[in-house]
């Protein structure tokens, strides 16, 4: 059976989602993640993944270059700070607009191909953007040093309204609040909630249904009187704008933009987030983003001392063995843990964490034994496969 | 009045002359069957009507408008719908969504950025779609995934997807191939019923039972050429047809 759509359910979903996001400082405390720097990363990369999912989850087009839009968003935001002042609202608006224009150009060319060729084209564009940012575009990007806001920058609106910035580092502001610490987190959280609501509306709209049709059968779509190209291009631009918003927020919480944000590993990361959480689901990408950022920040911070502490209940010799084995998976080796987790998910739960949750839900609702039928019915949803080319 | 005119159409694939000066006229409101042995060029001809293939020479005119070089979605928007030999449906979507997509295409055109309305709020489209599903007896399954249907049901679903667009011309490529006798008869009844809507239909079919139950007019294609054309009774008795089509056996 398919998911039921109704306005009531959408409002319930966004209400629960908002509550969960805004109370993160409370319920994340027990797992040591309740500090603003990490939580705002959850929110920012959640936005990135939600947007990516509109393209990949709905239409099946796998872009390997979405980090380019993240970078464009960051650079645009920092330039807006430099020229207009430290207010965050114009900065993120400009980020969204510029990355949208950028996505229009890249999408227009890349969407001439489907499947692996599309992925390679997007990857090529992103790597081009990355290398250009380091080389010929240095006047705009400030190369390896990274782009930052200087006291000598015009910041027209700041001077116009006589905003006094004090002597410290220049920070982004909104309504007089400086966006660092918890203020920064709550600003990102509100953006995530808005972005998530927009994604719900898109997914449950006739437009969203057409995007699912693109993934399902482009041939039938064309013989049904629909032109699939503008639909995929619109999805590409929308997801590029989401990435731009995320990039803008990265600059808002830390007014500095560097080219490494556009590297292909960053593009790969958002693919992992989406698949890990569950491509094509609404919540999945947010979960995937949070999990990856959690691993990156918490697991990488473990060191030998923490491990010995953890295994202190074991006898001396065993303690060393346990610590050195598990040491491979934490600290600098945190990506090993992530890799193993990712493999397990893809092999056993191709629909991501959301499929796992759904299966558990089915077990509880109908008792054991009905899981197999559910799996069969949802097979098409596994969805890591790009739409076939004609 | 003829709704579709095919004039001197030729199509060559390498050394094979797939269509050899085909001429055809389809009357508005009629059921026109195209029969012929395997490899006669029937599907090639149909592909020229929907923009999948472009003839090397010749003209295809629908409602006074040339269909050559026009994209498939534009041909559909002009009023031509097609049922494929192997059902082309949206397997990962529910039945009702499968019907609503063509219904939206019919109402909104080839593209519309309708991203803020909720699907379930589109009452008119929904009711129309449910109505069509009732017509083809699939209404109880409307929330199932289309991929889980039997082959016969998939064909009926695809037919419903075409009907919801109120096409002027409906192209049916072997609508009963691989069906049981009972399913075939159901499909014949269904096609007769929708015949009341005055939709012009072109049927490609191997099953003579289906052809003679439905067709008003029959064209016989062999080796890329129309070798005979006429009313079912005339075709039945035509020795040339029996020779080409059945190798001399009697119908």
UniProtKB/TrEMBL annotation, chain B:
<dbReference type="GO" id="GO:0016887">
    <property type="term" value="F:ATP hydrolysis activity"/>
</dbReference>
<dbReference type="Pfam" id="PF00005">
    <property type="entry name" value="ABC_tran"/>
</dbReference>
<keyword id="KW-0813">Transport</keyword>
<dbReference type="GO" id="GO:0005524">
    <property type="term" value="F:ATP binding"/>
</dbReference>
<dbReference type="GO" id="GO:0005886">
    <property type="term" value="C:plasma membrane"/>
</dbReference>
<protein>
    <submittedName>
        <fullName>ABC transporter ATP-binding protein</fullName>
    </submittedName>
</protein>
<dbReference type="InterPro" id="IPR003439">
    <property type="entry name" value="ABC_transporter-like_ATP-bd"/>
</dbReference>
<dbReference type="InterPro" id="IPR003593">
    <property type="entry name" value="AAA+_ATPase"/>
</dbReference>
<keyword id="KW-0547">Nucleotide-binding</keyword>
<dbReference type="InterPro" id="IPR032823">
    <property type="entry name" value="BCA_ABC_TP_C"/>
</dbReference>
<dbReference type="InterPro" id="IPR051120">
    <property type="entry name" value="ABC_AA/LPS_Transport"/>
</dbReference>
<feature type="domain" description="ABC transporter">
    <location>
        <begin position="4"/>
        <end position="248"/>
    </location>
</feature>
<dbReference type="Pfam" id="PF12399">
    <property type="entry name" value="BCA_ABC_TP_C"/>
</dbReference>
<keyword id="KW-0067">ATP-binding</keyword>
<dbReference type="InterPro" id="IPR027417">
    <property type="entry name" value="P-loop_NTPase"/>
</dbReference>
